[in-house]
Amino acid sequence: MIRVTYIEADGTERTGEGKPNFSVMEVAQSAGVEGIIAECGGACSCATCHVLVDPAWMDAVGAATEVETELLEFSEYVAPNSRLSCQISLTQALDGLVVRVPPKQG
């Protein structure tokens, strides 16, 4: 199993586990992470699973796709380390990944 640590907007840390090829979003939902809404269910069409990847993990995770970047333009807390968690597939290289959930938009 591959572990992912989520730091919620209020600082609460939750750790979830998933198998290879599960998405970071799917693991977040299983772990009950606040702020990962995933309205589109992982279809990369809503940006409600936005996370900020810990800078130490950016090389391992990789850059956002063009579609992700376009969707993230509508998010309030976009940063160079922004990704849609539905688009990050787990691999053994991501065991221990840390992501932060940005504050709620509004």
TrEMBL record:
<dbReference type="GO" id="GO:0140647">
    <property type="term" value="P:P450-containing electron transport chain"/>
</dbReference>
<dbReference type="GO" id="GO:0046872">
    <property type="term" value="F:metal ion binding"/>
</dbReference>
<dbReference type="InterPro" id="IPR018298">
    <property type="entry name" value="Adrenodoxin_Fe-S_BS"/>
</dbReference>
<keyword id="KW-0411">Iron-sulfur</keyword>
<dbReference type="InterPro" id="IPR001055">
    <property type="entry name" value="Adrenodoxin-like"/>
</dbReference>
<keyword id="KW-0479">Metal-binding</keyword>
<dbReference type="InterPro" id="IPR012675">
    <property type="entry name" value="Beta-grasp_dom_sf"/>
</dbReference>
<protein>
    <submittedName>
        <fullName>2Fe-2S iron-sulfur cluster binding domain-containing protein</fullName>
    </submittedName>
</protein>
<dbReference type="GO" id="GO:0005829">
    <property type="term" value="C:cytosol"/>
</dbReference>
<keyword id="KW-0408">Iron</keyword>
<dbReference type="Pfam" id="PF00111">
    <property type="entry name" value="Fer2"/>
</dbReference>
<dbReference type="GO" id="GO:0051537">
    <property type="term" value="F:2 iron, 2 sulfur cluster binding"/>
</dbReference>
<feature type="domain" description="2Fe-2S ferredoxin-type">
    <location>
        <begin position="2"/>
        <end position="105"/>
    </location>
</feature>
<comment type="similarity">
    <text>Belongs to the adrenodoxin/putidaredoxin family.</text>
</comment>
<dbReference type="InterPro" id="IPR036010">
    <property type="entry name" value="2Fe-2S_ferredoxin-like_sf"/>
</dbReference>
<keyword id="KW-0001">2Fe-2S</keyword>
<dbReference type="InterPro" id="IPR001041">
    <property type="entry name" value="2Fe-2S_ferredoxin-type"/>
</dbReference>
<dbReference type="GO" id="GO:0009055">
    <property type="term" value="F:electron transfer activity"/>
</dbReference>
